[in-house]
């Protein structure tokens, strides 16, 4: 499997693992995932992921978080400042 495919597969697998089969992360599942899977403290601000404020993070909200984390890590790695937001 190519690197990007493997990275995407890992992200999907992680979401499914922590979502306990219901397709959403509740606050406790989200907390457990962040504590175990995120090493950079500056990225742990992701509690803002629950965009619709239903107390759970669905896959779409989760993917938006992953994009945000990727942008943060890119900026940190390259020193580039990307002002545009998608």
TrEMBL record:
One of its GO terms (molecular function) is calcium ion binding. SUPFAM superfamilies: EF-hand. InterPro entries: EF-hand-dom_pair, EF_Hand_1_Ca_BS, EF_hand_dom, S100_Ca-bd_sub. Residues 20-40, 44-72 form the EF-hand domain. Coiled coil: none annotated. It comes from the Eukaryota. Keywords: Calcium, Metal-binding. One of its GO terms (cellular component) is extracellular space. SMART domains: EFh, S_100. PROSITE patterns: EF_HAND_1, EF_HAND_2. This is EF-hand domain-containing protein. It comes from Lates calcarifer (Barramundi).
């Amino acid at each position: 499997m190519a690197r990007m495919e493997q990275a995407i597969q890992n992200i999907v697998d992680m979401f499914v693992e922590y979502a306990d089969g219901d397709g959403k992360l509740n606050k406790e599942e989200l907390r457990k995932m962040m504590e175990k899977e995120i090493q950079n403290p500056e990225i742990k601000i992701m509690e803002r992921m629950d965009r619709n404020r239903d107390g759970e993070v669905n896959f779409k909200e989760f993917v938006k978080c992953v994009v945000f984390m990727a942008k943060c890590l890119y900026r940190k790695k390259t020193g580039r400042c990307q002002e545009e937001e998608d």
